[in-house]
Structure formats: structure tokens, C-alpha cells
């Protein structure tokens, strides 16, 4: 079953100057009842892989882990959109903040259990973006899925699912983690990149490197660097690209 | 100038203390506050004891003197029934201080048909209450009426001063009665101003220049134009709602169902006063007489349905108490499974609805967010939904705090402090709720141990996450970083080493090792 997202209103965008269109997009982002014509902010290195962007009211499959999901969400949250994590009991708050998410606009429902689908449809009313990891045994009937998709489309809520899911606009897949700063018995994980491939609606696959988190703030690392033992063992950036 | 009626109970602190301590108010009695006499009975006064005398001096002047410590709360508490007695006779009573009440004279005068009749009627209402000596003064302004009441005697306990005689009555009184403090009174006397009449005659501009606004206020009082008004006291309304059940209830849905109507009443009472409740204390009494209380906060305000939810959550928490993971905020002594016989809703914080009015275009997206999250919360329980706060600490789990939606964030350690030993570099994407035990082996498959100096017995090469699972090959690692926390406190001390591992699939792990073995604390996934 494939659900087609409604076509963007091209005529309106052409006639109005760009700054007005931008403002309209922002207003639409705040009003969930507005038609889902605008897109959700996406960081530049991911937007290169998915030129169509992430649309409001659509569903996307994001497989590969917390970091990839964080990277997809980061700019939407930084722009002030409400984001909810449904079914992620172990999310690290510091990683979210380091990726640019606003923690005061990030809701967490760590263990929705069997209520996950009803919680999901409640949240669809209010949140801008939902990051969902359904329980392993979860099965969604096609009728339920259609109802959910309709609700998301009506409310303009974007759904990012970390599971096999039908009716998605695009699929994000993590191919490999790329670490730097760590050696054998030396260094520390300093830079984290993801090799991501995105299969868009037409089936075209693009892949590339996506940065996730900047290292922790200077104030924290400074105290750590003042430890001479660590200073000596740091070998400088060593890249370890490991393919999955 | 408003006519005011002042009811004065002479030596009220003595009357109150004598009743409280079961002493005879006619015997010599003095109340001591900060080492000096604060109040004394008539018998003591006739022996030469005056206010402000040191205790030793007072006892020297009157050897039979009984000395007690002055207690402000006794004063106020004992006077409360007298205020109610007067309030029963006339509305709008202003409690100036314990022992002194003021009432606007116009109403009672019209009702009782004359100023003297009104004064006598109010006096008799207090005499019926059991007070021995009550004086009443009626004059223009509260200050003048008080001075009139003080000028009465036991033989002539009621005095009415016509408005025209106000200035003449006040003029000979000492200036110390109006001066804002003792220093000003002394200064005025040194300047040759001894009476209220002399003070009132001074030009107001000069008084303002020399003594400021407080001086002008005092001069107006001295002239008989008391700027103070009678401010009737307002008894705060009682909003607490109590539900009592004849049979002990043991199921939370039973209680929640019975509570619905009471929650509605609680809400309606507050709304009638244009208030909303943002913090409520729910108290549950069980059949054994134990009481369980908890304060619930709300990010907006409590509706009736929210209150029922809170009662149900608290009951669920209470019934779950014997299981691990019980709510530590519940204040319970000696819990045993018992039916609930009483539920009380006490508003901890009530705010004006004006501060919570939604905007002209609705409350914006946050109102919707709140509704959605509350709905999920009523599905999953209070801990089911929340947000993160960052805190200080050395382990990733210490550095984040999950705050249930609507709760106040708990007091936290400061994040901007240095925390030497905290991890640097990339923060872990996943922080495990429960650290999972793992086995870390070297290339030969032998378990890696940590010696007393915190060094590893070999190079980590394999990570066994679960007993049945194939080991993961380690391609890169960093550490070990020793961590000694709270070594000064034997109970909380914690020593371990930490390593970062990158396995062949590219996932990275933060493992912690100590005497108990290795555990995964966080994952970089």
C-alpha cells in the first residue's frame, strides 16, 4: 500500500515573494490544521541526500539507530518545532542537546508498551515531528495504518519510524559509523559521522556522510585536557571507517 | 472624615497569658519580651512596674511579681474568638492588633439608632463573650477613636467624641503617640514640640523637608485627619474538599469514580472565586489511621478530570508500594495494604484566573501540546511522559534527569561545574537505564581484569553482550579511565574504570569495569 502525499501548492509559492512564503511556512509549522504544504527543516548534509526534503504530514523510515534519528530531527527541533520520542527508553539527553535539539521542546515517552499506537495518534495532534520505535512484536493493521496516515496528513505531523513501515516517502538507512579520535588504547571518540543512504520516493538512492554531534563544549574538555596522562596518550585524529 | 468605632481590651496580652497559663489576672503579673517588661497587670502597675523596665528592676519594685514569657501567637490565637464574637454582631471588623478592633461607625450607628447605643451594643456583645473589661471609643478616624478608647475608665467605659472636638481632644496628648519611631519622638521633644497640637500646627512643607512622608502622615494623625482607613479583615475561604467513605475502598478505580463529583465541587468552588489551582495536595487516609500525602503540580491548572487522575495515580503508586521502584515522593509511614476511607484535596497554590486566561487566538501550540501529553500521561501514568533536564555529574546517567510532564524538576547538581573525570568527546547517543553486564575478553578469549592500579590485564578484543550471542570483535578502543567518586563516604563511594570500544559493526560502547565485572553504561549508536 502506498500513500501519496498531496502535491505542494505550486501556484501560491510562485506568486508570493520568497520571504512571505517563508513566513507562511513557519506559520503553517505552528498550525497543525494548516494544509501540509511546507517542509520540515532538515540539516544541510541530509538535505543533499533528499532534495525533496522532509514534508509535513508524511511518513519516513529511519533505520539505523539513535544517532541517525537525532540527525534527522535536529534542525526541526532547533527551529522550535515540538518533537516527541516514542518508545526510546535509552535516549541520551546530552547527545540530543549536542546535535542541536531543544530539550524544552522535546517530549519523551520512553516505554509506551501496548499503548504505543493510541499514544502515537494522541501525539499526532500536537507534535510536529514524531520519532517512533514500535515494540518488536507490534503489528499494525492496514486499516489502522491508513487512519493514522490520514490523521498525520490532516495535522501536518511528520512521522519517522525506526521499523519496517509501508507508505513511507523515503527511507533513511545507516550504512556505517565513521569515528575519529580513537586508536587502540588511546584517544577518545571525538567526531562521529554517519554514512547514510537515502532511497527516495522514486526509488533513487543517494548516499553520503552526515555529521552528527560536535564534541562536548570546550569548558568540559578543557578540564579533561589538563590531565597530563591523557595528553600524552592522545594520538591525534585517527579515522576508523567500519562498514556494517 | 469617617467616623470609626474602636473596641479596646485593656492589657490584652495579660488577659491572654493569664487564661493560657491559668494565672490570676488580678495578681501582679508581667510579660517579658527580650529581657524587658512588655505588658503588666494593673496590680503590678500600681506597684510601680511599667512597660520597658528590665525584668530584674521590675522584680525589685514588686517582689510578688509573677513573670512569664510574652508569646505573640497566644495573643493572636486567644483573640480570634473575640473577633468572631464581634463579627457576629457587626460585619467588616478591622483587626488592628490583638486587643484592638476597629469598625466603621456608620452602619452600626444607623442600626442601633445612635452613636452611644451602637458603642454600648458592641461592648455588650464582647462582655457576653466573657471578657471582664472592654472599652469603646467612637470618634473621627481610627487613630482618634483609639485615643478616645484609651481615655476611658472602668467607671465610664464608653466614650463618644463629637467630630468638632477632635482637634481639641488630641492637642494635649504627647507627641510620642504619632512619631514613627523613638528617635523622631526624642528629636521632636528637643525641638520643643511636646504635644500633638504643637506638632499639628507646624507647616506641612517644613515637616516634609525634615521628616519626609512618614512625618507628614504623623502630622495629619496629630491634626485629627487620620489617613488610615478601616480595612475589614477577609477570612480566606476554605477550599479543601474531603470525601469520606463508609466502607474502606480498596480499588483505585472505585475511589476515582467516587471522587469525580468531589473533584467537580473542588473545581467549582475555586472557579467561583476566579481562582485556578496549580498545585494540589492529595491526602489519603486508610482504615488503620495512616495518612499518605503527596503534592502534585500542574503545568497549567487542574481541571476536575486532572484531579481524579492524580488521585488514581497516587493510589496506584500506594498499592504498588511494596514492589521495587516505588515512588520516593510518597510520604508514608509503616504501609500495610488497607482500604482507603478518606480522600482530601487541599489546594497548595491557587492563582487568579486572570493570569491563566488564554489569548485571543487561543493559547497557541503549547496548549495543544499540553493536552496531547496529558492525554498520553493519563494512559501511561505520571512517569510515562516527560522531558529531559541536563545536570552535572561524571557518568552519562548522572548528567541527565527525566522530569515527568507537569512535575517540578528535582534539585540538581550544577552542570557548569568542572566535574573532573567526566567523559569528553562525543556524548553517547543512548544512555542505558540499567547498566547491562557484559564480558570483555582479550584476543585469547580470557576475561579482562583490572588491577589495583586501574590497568587492564590485556587488550580488549571481544565483547560478549549476551550469553548466547556471538562475540563482537573490537576494532578500536580507548581507556581505561579511572573514576573515583565520593571516596570519603563509604556508603556512596564508587570506583571503576571506563573504556570506549568500537566494534566491527561500527557501533561504539562505553563499558564500565569494577570488582563485579564489566557493564555497558552507554551506547554510541
What does this protein structure show overall?
The complex is a heterodimer of chains A (244) and B (525). With 244 residues, chain A is an alpha/beta fold. Chain A has helices at residues 10-15, 18-30, 44-47, 66-78, 93-98, 116-124, 142-155, 218-225, 228-233, and strands at 39-40, 54-55, 59-63, 83-86, 106-109, 129-132, 158-161, 170-182, 187-199, 205-211, 239-243. Helix content of chain A is 32%, strand content 26%. In chain A, strands 3, 4, 5, 6, 7, 8, 9, 10 and 11 form a nine-stranded mixed sheet that branches. In chain A, strands 1-2 form a two-stranded antiparallel ribbon. Chain A is globular and about 50 Å long. Residues 1-5, 32-36 and 215-244 of chain A have low confidence and may be disordered. Chain B has 525 residues and is of the alpha+beta class. Chain B has a six-stranded antiparallel β-barrel with strand order 15-16-17-18-19-20. Chain B has a five-stranded mixed sheet with strand order 5-6-1-7-8. The longest helix of chain B is centred in the middle third of the chain and has 21 residues, at 252-272. The radius of gyration of chain B is 36 Å and the shape is elongated. The model of chain B has no long low-confidence stretch (mean pLDDT 86).
* Beta-strand content estimate of chain A: 25-35%
Largest sheet of chain A, if any?
Answer: 9 strands, mixed
Mean pLDDT of chain B: 86
Question: How far from one another are the termini of chain B?
Answer: 80 Å
Q: How many H/I helical runs of chain A?
A: 9
Quick take:
The complex is a heterodimer of chains A (244) and B (525). Residues 1-5, 32-36 and 215-244 of chain A have low confidence and may be disordered.
Amino acid at each position: 500500500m502506498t500513500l501519496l502525499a498531496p502535491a505542494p501548492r505550486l501556484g501560491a509559492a510562485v506568486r508570493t515573494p520568497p520571504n512571505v512564503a517563508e513566513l507562511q511556512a513557519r506559520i503553517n509549522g505552528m498550525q497543525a490544521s494548516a494544509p501540509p504544504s511546507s517542509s520540515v527543516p532538515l540539516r544541510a548534509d541530509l538535505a543533499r541526500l533528499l532534495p525533496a526534503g522532509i514534508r509535513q504530514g508524511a511518513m519516513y523510515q529511519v533505520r539505523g539507530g539513535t544517532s541517525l534519528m537525532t540527525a534527522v530531527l535536529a534542525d526541526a527541533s532547533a527551529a522550535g518545532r515540538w518533537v516527541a520520542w516514542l518508545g526510546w527508553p535509552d535516549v541520551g539527553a546530552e547527545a540530543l542537546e549536542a546535535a542541536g535539539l531543544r530539550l524544552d521542546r522535546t517530549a519523551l515517552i520512553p516505554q509506551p508498551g501496548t499503548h504505543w499506537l493510541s499514544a502515537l495518534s494522541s501525539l499526532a495532534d500536537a507534535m510536529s515531528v514524531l520519532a517512533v520505535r514500535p515494540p518488536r512484536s507490534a503489528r499494525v493493521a492496514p486499516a489502522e495504518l491508513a487512519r493514522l496516515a490520514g490523521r498525520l496528513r490532516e495535522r501536518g505531523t511528520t512521522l519517522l519510524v525506526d521499523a519496517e513501515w509501508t507508505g513511507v516517502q523515503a527511507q533513511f538507512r545507516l550504512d556505517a559509523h565513521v569515528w575519529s579520535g580513537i586508536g587502540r588504547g588511546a584517544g577518545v571518540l571525538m567526531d562521529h559521522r554517519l554514512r547514510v543512504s537515502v532511497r527516495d520516493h522514486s526509488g533513487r538512492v543517494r548516499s553520503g556522510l552526515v555529521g552528527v554531534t560536535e564534541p562536548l563544549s570546550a569548558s568540559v574538555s578543557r578540564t579533561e585536557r589538563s590531565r597530563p596522562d591523557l595528553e600524552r596518550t592522545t594520538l591525534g585524529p585517527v579515522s576508523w571507517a567500519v562498514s556494517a | 472624615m469617617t467616623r470609626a468605632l474602636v473596641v479596646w481590651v485593656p492589657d490584652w496580652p495579660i488577659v491572654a497569658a493569664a487564661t493560657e497559663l491559668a494565672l490570676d489576672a488580678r495578681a501582679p503579673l508581667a510579660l517579658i519580651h527580650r529581657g524587658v517588661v512588655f505588658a503588666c497587670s494593673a496590680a503590678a502597675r500600681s506597684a510601680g512596674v511599667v512597660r520597658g523596665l528590665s525584668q530584674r528592676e521590675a522584680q525589685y519594685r514588686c517582689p510578688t511579681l509573677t513573670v512569664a514569657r510574652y508569646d505573640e501567637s497566644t495573643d493572636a490565637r486567644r483573640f480570634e474568638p473575640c473577633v468572631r464574637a464581634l463579627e457576629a454582631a457587626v460585619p467588616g471588623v478591622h483587626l488592628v492588633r490583638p486587643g484592638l478592633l476597629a469598625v466603621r461607625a456608620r452602619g452600626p450607628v444607623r442600626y442601633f439608632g445612635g452613636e452611644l447605643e451602637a458603642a454600648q451594643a458592641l461592648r455588650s456583645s464582647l462582655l457576653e463573650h466573657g471578657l471582664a473589661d472592654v472599652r469603646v471609643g467612637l470618634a473621627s478616624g481610627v487613630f482618634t477613636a483609639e485615643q478616645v478608647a484609651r481615655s476611658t475608665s472602668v467607671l465610664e467605659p464608653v466614650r463618644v467624641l463629637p467630630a468638632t472636638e477632635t482637634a481639641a481632644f488630641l492637642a494635649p496628648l504627647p507627641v510620642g503617640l504619632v512619631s514613627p519611631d523613638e528617635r523622631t519622638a526624642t528629636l521632636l521633644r528637643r525641638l520643643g514640640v511636646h504635644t500633638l497640637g504643637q506638632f499639628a500646627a507646624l507647616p506641612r512643607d517644613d515637616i516634609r523637608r525634615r521628616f519626609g512622608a512618614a512625618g507628614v502622615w504623623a502630622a495629619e494623625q496629630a491634626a485629627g485627619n487620620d489617613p488610615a482607613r478601616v480595612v475589614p479583615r477577609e477570612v480566606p475561604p476554605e477550599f479543601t474538599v474531603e470525601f469520606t467513605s463508609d466502607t474502606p475502598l480498596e480499588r483505585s478505580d472505585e475511589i476515582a469514580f467516587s471522587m469525580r463529583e468531589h473533584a467537580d465541587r473542588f473545581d467549582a468552588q475555586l472557579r467561583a472565586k476566579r481562582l485556578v489551582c496549580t498545585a494540589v495536595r492529595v491526602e489519603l487516609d486508610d482504615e488503620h489511621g495512616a495518612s499518605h500525602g503527596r503534592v502534585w503540580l500542574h503545568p497549567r491548572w487542574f481541571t476536575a478530570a486532572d484531579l481524579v487522575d492524580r488521585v488514581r495515580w497516587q493510589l496506584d503508586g500506594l498499592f504498588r508500594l511494596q514492589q521495587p521502584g516505588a515512588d520516593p515522593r510518597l510520604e508514608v509511614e509503616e504501609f500495610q495494604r488497607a482500604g482507603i476511607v478518606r480522600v482530601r484535596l487541599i489546594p497548595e497554590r491557587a492563582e487568579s484566573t486572570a493570569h491563566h486566561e488564554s489569548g485571543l487566538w487561543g493559547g497557541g501550540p503549547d496548549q495543544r501540546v499540553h493536552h496531547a501529553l496529558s492525554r498520553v500521561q493519563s494512559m501511561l501514568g505520571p512517569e510515562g511522559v516527560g522531558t529531559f533536564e541536563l545536570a552535572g555529574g561524571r557518568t552519562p546517567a548522572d548528567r541527565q534527569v527525566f522530569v515527568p510532564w507537569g512535575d517540578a524538576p528535582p534539585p540538581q547538581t550544577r552542570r557548569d561545574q568542572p566535574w573532573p573525570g567526566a567523559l569528553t568527546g562525543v556524548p553517547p547517543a543512548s544512555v542505558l537505564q540499567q547498566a547491562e553486564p557484559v564480558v570483555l575478553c582479550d584476543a585469547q578469549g580470557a576475561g579482562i581484569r583490572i588491577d589495583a592500579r586501574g590497568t587492564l590485564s590485556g587488550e580488549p578484543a571481544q565483547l560478549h553482550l549476551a550469553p548466547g550471542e556471538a562475540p563482537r570483535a573490537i576494532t578500536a578502543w580507548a581507556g581505561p579511565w579511572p573514576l573515583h567518586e565520593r571516596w570519603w563516604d563509604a556508603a556512596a563511594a564508587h570506583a571503576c574504570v571506563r573504556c570506549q570500544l568500537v566494534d566491527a559493526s561500527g557501533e561504539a560502547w562505553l563499558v564500565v569495569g569494577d570488582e563485579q565485572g564489566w557493564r555497558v553504561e552507554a551506547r554510541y549508536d
